[in-house]
Structures are given as structure tokens and as C-alpha cells.
Amino acid sequence: MGLYEQIAEEGLRLASEMGVFGRNNSTDFTYNYFQNQLKQVKDFEVMSFEEVGVDTENPSLKKQFLLNIIYKQLPYDINLFVVESNVLDLDNYARINYIDENDVQLAKLESFYLESSMYFSTNILESFHLQLKVLTALIPNPTVLVDFMPARLLSGQWAVFSSKLITPPSPHYIYTIHGVFDEVDGEKVYWLHTHGLHRCGSVELEMIDIKNGVNELNGLLDAMVSKFIYEPANENEPFNIGYIGYDLNFSWVRWEEMVGQYPAEIPGGLQERSPEQENYGPCGIVYLLENDELYPPDVLAEDLKENPVYFIKNEETERMSALAYEQYHYYKKVFQQHNGDENWRFLIKLGLPIDEGEGNEHLWFDVTDINDDDTMNVILLNQPYQIEKYNQNDALVLPIEHLTDWLIYGPEKNYTPDSIYELFT
């Protein structure tokens, strides 16, 4: 059985590897220290913790531990490694959230960091959340974290903040999309490809030989990957991710079967497909599927400029709503501090019942006041399609139980349920 078949039929995946850096070289990287830290945790149950022998062929690896835990009734085996920090250049890692530059500089001064390796369960976001919880339990005041598969640097403050929440972080933390281009005959040719899905029991996804609409196609690929986090599609299996006057149906084909149809020298072409360049793993090239025919996705370049509707999995809508609720007290606190101040604006997204059938229409509102009973005085920002009694610019009083998301525009930056920690750390 090949790798693609093992991924589809057996859920084959790679381990998720993440490192955490302490602060001021104050971490005692010993068994006793970590054992005492684990005694304080409440989010997961420690079944066993032991120090094991290290790989003597890796001189930067100083200690190794094995941690067995139960989290939400599922067992996890987590390998922990104490590693010399000088093996990493933190400047080589991209950033997805705000990181205090002082924390980055402090991380560079650390002599060692703690690396973790664990396999995700089928609940990807819960597993990622657990990995954050474990690392911040062991090193409770981190400067930064390194997420190796998507090559990302994460804020230690964000990790601590997020690890204390019930709701897991966004799917966007699981993966990154890399865009590589070159000029071929005076024309830019792009290759968009993901990193991070191999730990999720999925192939990575890519678009090759893109010559038009790279920004729109990056958004399209982003919508696909968010769906794959919850429900990956099998090879040659049609999947729908949205609507743009017509259904947006796609299918993926393993790169080994398709890359020979492209010039070998373009980004993502055969010349770049080698184990040494790490572009050799299971990966699906994505195509538009129309009438059982495959087309390159950049045929959609112009249509995608017309604001396509990308479908969001129900599980993701529920996660976003849960996070918005869980962080609402911060929203309310900032509203009370800055409502009416220049350059501050408070938006809220509510899912209101539609007139016919089941389901909700998700609408954005300006918030003008929050009442003592947590009803909100709001102004509707967009025209509903499926709720006849409401119109754009209506002034309404609505309850919080319809909350699905919120956004704060500040004088210098915006804040979401995911990034509100920046105002409180």
C-alpha cells in the first residue's frame, strides 16, 4: 500500500513538532522540575512521565522525556527533547501573530529549548490546542514557540493566553501557504503550496503554473485548506468549497501523475521535486472540476474578483462562535473603555434565524451601546438576503445569544477574539 492509500485508508500522518523557549535562562531542564510543573496541570491527566536515553549521534540533543497523558478521553504519547538553542535561527521563521520584539531577542539568548513531538488525533484543532497546553505547562512563561512543520514563530504570550481557553485556536494556525514565483519568458509563474497538513492525516495541497490572479487563488486555496482540516477529500473525489454564480467544485490529483505535464524548470516543476528540497512528499495538485473535466484554477482569476462565497464548515462556525463568547468579556471591557473615542470602532457578527427553512444568516453590525442585560444597540451594516424584516442601516436592539464573531478597530491595529490578548498582556 502506497503513502497516498495509507493516508486515505489508515489516517497516516506525521508527528507535529513544536518547540518552546523560556525566558532569562531560568528554566531548569530536569526531570524533577518538569514533574513538579506537571503536578499543577488541570487540563489533562498525566498517566506517566519518565526520562529516557538520548540519541548519542545528535550532540545538540541533551535530554529526552516521554510523557503519556489523557486529554478529553483520548491517550497521547508526547516525546520531549531538551535541545541546544544554537541549532535554530529564529529569524528564518515566519510570524502569524504579534510577537514582542523583546521576547524574540530574549529567546535568542536562551541556551536550550524544549521540543515536543506528538501525533494528532482525528480532532486536529483539539490536538494542536493540547500541544500548546503541554508546552506552556512545562515552561509557563515562554518567550516564543516554534511550530516546525509550517515553519512559524508563535508568540509565547499568545500561547499562554490560548492554552487557558476552552476553545481551540483557528485552523489558520495549523498550516501556511508558501508562494514561490519565477519569471519564465518575461512572465511571472507562481507555485502555491501548503505546509502543515501532513500532521492532519491529509496530503498537502498546491496550485502549479499560476500566471493570473495569484492573490485571489491564494484566498481560494486558504478556503480549501480550512475545509481539509475538518474533512479532507480523497484523491479524484469532487469537493465543493463555495459559490460564485456557479458552484466551485474541485478535485486533486497526486503530483507524481501531473507534474510531467508542466515545464520542468518552473516553480514546482520536476526539477524541484527531490527529497533534498522537501518537495517530494504526498501532495495533491488542485484543479477546477467542470462537467467531469479538469481545468487549471487560474481560469477562475477574473471571476474570483467578484467576492465569491466560501462555505465554512459547521464545526468551524461553532468554534468561532464559542471563541467569540469566551472572549466577549474582553470585548465588553474595551468597549466600556473606548466607546466614543476617536479611531475606535466596535463591530459584532450575529447569526439571525432566516425567514424560510432552518439556519441563520450571519450579519455584521456596528455596536453603539451594550446594555446592562447584555443586549446591544446595533446598526446593521449589510443588506440581508434571507431576512425580510431587516434592512441595511436599521437601528436594532439584539441579544448576545446570536453572537458568532466580533471585531474591534483600534487607532493602530484591529483586535479579534484570537488577538485581543495583545491589550491584556
TrEMBL record:
Residues covered by the DUF2314 domain: 324-413
InterPro entries hit by this protein: DUF2314, DUF4026_middle, DUF4026_N
Species whose genome carries this gene: Paenimyroides ummariense
Domain DUF4026 span(s) in chain numbering: 16-169, 177-281
Signal peptide range: none
Entries under Pfam families matching the protein: DUF2314 (PF10077), DUF4026_C (PF22789), DUF4026_N (PF13218)
Protein name, entry field: Uncharacterized protein
